[in-house]
Every structure is written in structure tokens, then in C-alpha cells.
Design the sequence.
């Protein structure tokens, strides 16, 4: 051990880019695109540092490495889920994937190639982002910059992401658009003697996919930030080594009070909206249903979600309050 009490501690672990996904593993369709399957989705983390063993333990640092990467892993999961959903709309239910592309129809090949291209780009972006972020965090550990500053930086970064989003009409705007699309579809179907119009269903499907894409960009990003803040808050509340001001922020975020309630309700509302929007997209994709049924569906959808913007307003107020507390904590620890 060195005169300053430090000794070499080697961190040797890995981070799976699928760690925040539901299956914790690669999607089945990767088998059909070997180049994607061969991408390095497991990120190795290895570094030997001179640290004070009274302050640092190998296991603690390795757990911290995952926590550092968790936000990016959640965003990766959200984007991958969207790619998988888009692919599922084309592939036959129960499709068994294989390396033999001769088993694919032209539509299936096009969809798989598109998904493979999107995953390749996604992997490149987040593999680098996670690697760089973890490397920087370990450098800060070795330089002994302190957990308090890292906690503040992570919290403020998440809040900045939240502040950059336009959440003013997160539910009402897409709900109104879905209502219009389904009402128009119902009118077009009713105008046909046989009550069937594949073209009308296709147009509605394309328009609904556009609504879904826009909601993913705002709604899911918002949800990722909320989940990160709740997770971070729970950890800060229990961290006895954190500055008192950070412990207090953690307790306020994780306690069953106004802040947690507002953020939890918004996250649940996003899940509900996403589920119902996905069901609406499937109806248009399948091309089955009467004119009156489509109008009723659209009206119900708009009525159900048109007034949900208050949950967004409450969560925005909660995050602003947290932001103020992080700024105060920053001054307390001179971050």
C-alpha cells in the first residue's frame, strides 16, 4: 500500500446493452441478420486504479458502473422496442427466423434489412456513449472528484433532457389527431356500399404510424427521464456518504408524496397511451371494422386521453422543484 493509503483496485466487469430490455437478450430476429448478431452488445469495462480501500470497494465501483450507464441503456431499450414493434407489423405471427433468406418474402426482407440498419446505427451511437460515459466516470473516481458532484451532474443532465422536450400537449395533441384519423376512416368506410375500403385503412395506418413516431420521441424520452430520477432519488436517499442536501433530495423524490406521485402518474399515463395507440395502429393495419365502429373508437380515444395533459403539468412542476433543489445542492458542495 502506498504512503497515501491507496492501493491498486482493478474493476473488471461488463455491461450488456440489453440489460434494460424485457428479455435481457437479443431479439429473435437477429438470427436472420448475422451482421447485426455479431455486433458487440456486451461492453467490457476494465481499469486498474490507485484508490483508498477505506472509501472504495471493487464491488461498489462495478455496481456504480452500471448505474452510470443506466439512462443510455433505457433509451437504447426504448428505441429497440420501437424497431421491434415496426418489424412485428410486417412479419407473420409466430415467424421462425433463420439465416436462410430464401424463406423471406420481399416485404419481410425489406423490413428486416431496415430493422438491421436501424439497430446498427443505434448500436454505434449508444455503444460509444456508454463507453465514453463509463470511462469518464472511472477517471473521476481515480481523481477522487467525489460522488456528490457526479450525483448532481447526473441529476441536472436528466433534468436538462426533460426541459428540452415540448410536453405542453403531450396527450391532447396526438389524441385529437387519432380522433380525426379514425373519424375520417369511419366516414370513408360508411360511404362504400360494401363498407370495405382497403385504401382507407392503409391511409389511416400510415397516418397513425406518424402519430406514434412523434409520441415516441416525446413521451418515451420523458418517461426515461422520470424513471431515471426516481431510481437516482431512491439511491441518494439511502447513501449515507452523500451530502445531506443530496440525501434530502433523494428522500423527497422517493417518498410517497407529491413529487413521486406526479412523476409516477405521468409514467403510467404514458404507458396507457402507448398501449392504446398501438392497439389503434393494429386495427388500421388489419383493415377490419365498420365505419361506425371506427368513429366510436376514435371518439373514445380522444375523450379518454384529451384531458390527460394535467398529469404532464403536475410532473413538470415536480421536476422544476427538483431542479431548484439540485441547483442549491450544487452550491452546497461547490460542484
Sequence:
Amino acid at each position: 500500500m502506498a504512503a497515501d493509503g491507496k492501493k491498486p483496485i482493478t474493476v473488471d466487469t461488463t455491461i450488456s446493452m440489453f440489460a434494460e430490455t424485457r428479455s435481457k437478450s437479443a431479439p429473435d430476429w437477429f438470427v436472420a441478420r448475422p451482421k447485426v448478431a455479431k455486433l458487440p452488445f456486451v461492453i467490457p469495462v476494465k481499469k486498474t486504479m490507485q484508490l483508498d480501500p477505506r472509501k472504495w470497494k471493487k464491488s461498489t465501483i462495478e455496481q456504480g458502473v452500471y448505474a452510470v450507464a443506466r439512462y443510455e441503456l433505457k433509451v437504447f431499450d426504448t428505441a429497440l422496442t420501437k424497431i421491434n414493434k415496426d418489424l412485428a407489423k410486417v412479419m407473420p405471427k409466430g415467424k421462425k427466423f433463420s439465416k436462410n433468406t430464401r424463406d423471406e418474402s420481399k416485404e419481410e426482407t425489406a423490413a428486416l434489412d431496415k430493422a438491421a440498419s436501424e439497430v446498427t446505427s443505434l448500436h454505434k451511437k449508444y455503444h460509444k456513449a456508454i463507453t465514453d460515459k463509463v470511462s469518464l466516470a472511472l477517471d473521476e473516481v481515480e481523481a477522487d472528484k467525489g460522488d456528490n458532484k457526479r450525483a448532481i451532474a447526473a441529476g441536472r443532465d436528466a433534468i436538462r433532457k426533460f426541459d428540452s422536450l415540448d410536453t405542453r400537449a403531450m396527450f391532447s395533441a396526438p389524441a385529437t389527431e387519432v380522433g380525426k384519423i379514425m373519424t375520417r376512416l369511419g366516414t370513408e368506410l360508411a360511404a362504400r356500399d360494401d363498407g370495405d375500403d382497403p385504401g382507407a385503412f392503409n391511409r389511416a395506418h400510415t397516418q397513425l404510424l406518424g402519430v406514434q413516431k412523434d409520441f415516441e420521441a416525446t413521451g418515451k424520452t420523458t418517461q426515461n427521464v422520470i424513471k431515471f430520477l426516481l431510481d437516482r432519488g431512491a439511491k441518494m436517499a439511502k447513501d449515507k456518504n452523500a451530502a445531506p442536501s443530496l440525501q434530502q433530495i433523494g428522500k423527497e423524490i422517493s417518498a410517497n408524496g407529491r413529487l413521486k406521485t406526479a412523476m409516477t402518474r405521468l409514467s403510467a399515463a404514458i404507458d396507457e397511451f402507448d398501449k392504446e395507440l398501438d392497439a389503434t395502429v393494429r386495427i388500421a393495419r388489419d383493415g377490419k371494422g365498420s365505419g361506425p365502429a371506427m368513429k366510436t373508437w376514435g371518439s373514445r380515444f380522444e375523450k379518454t386521453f384529451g384531458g390527460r395533459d394535467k398529469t404532464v403539468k403536475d410532473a413538470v412542476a415536480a421536476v422544476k422543484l427538483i431542479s431548484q433543489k439540485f441547483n442549491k445542492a450544487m452550491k452546497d458542495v461547490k460542484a
Summary: The longest strand covers residues 7-16. Residues 1-145 form one domain. DSSP finds ten helices and two strands in the chain. The CA atoms of residues 205 and 284 lie 5 Å apart.
